[in-house]
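A.,

Following up on our hallway conversation. Structure tokens first:
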């Protein structure tokens, strides 16, 4: 299979599918297709920016439409790259263990990020985490049944 162009065909087909999904979402977001006049149009396209998406099919070279007014990012893509997600996870883990924002900056620099991370960025990430933990803690469990074992060792 490596000697044929089958893997490249799969990558090309996947890239085409992703690009069409992005274009369809952008059209719905704008309210009109490219070069289409419409009463529902909210803005106009203004070129595109390149984005490489790494998948099991290979690296996909996608074009994300830019808008004249406002911003658009497809729901099918993740906003943060994997490195950003790993950094985000490190900051949250440090926060859970009670590490100060100053020490989090030192930790991020030690991990190889030259610029480090600001105290306000750490606070923003931790605030997001507080919302997630609060939503988990306050979720309704009344509709579920939980078996339990009670043991009295006295």
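Then the amino acids I'd put at each of the 154 positions:
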């Amino acid at each position: 299979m490596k000697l044929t162009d089958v893997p490249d065909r799969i990558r090309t087909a996947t890239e085409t599918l992703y690009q069409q999904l992005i274009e369809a979402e952008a059209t719905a977001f704008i309210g009109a297709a490219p070069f289409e006049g419409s009463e529902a149009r909210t803005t106009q396209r203004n070129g595109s920016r390149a984005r490489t998406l790494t998948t099991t099919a290979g690296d996909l070279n996608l074009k994300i439409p830019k808008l004249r007014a406002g911003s658009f990012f497809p729901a099918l893509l993740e906003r943060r790259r994997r490195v950003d997600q790993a950094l985000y996870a490190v900051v949250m883990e440090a926060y859970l263990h009670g590490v100060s924002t100053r020490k989090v900056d030192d930790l991020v620099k030690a991990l190889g990020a030259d610029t480090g991370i600001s105290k306000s960025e750490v606070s923003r990430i931790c605030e997001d985490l507080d919302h997630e933990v609060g939503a988990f803690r306050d979720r309704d469990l009344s509709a579920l049944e939980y078996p339990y074992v009670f043991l009295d060792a006295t």
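The CA atoms of residues 126 and 132 lie 10 Å apart. Curious whether your intuition agrees with the design.

B.
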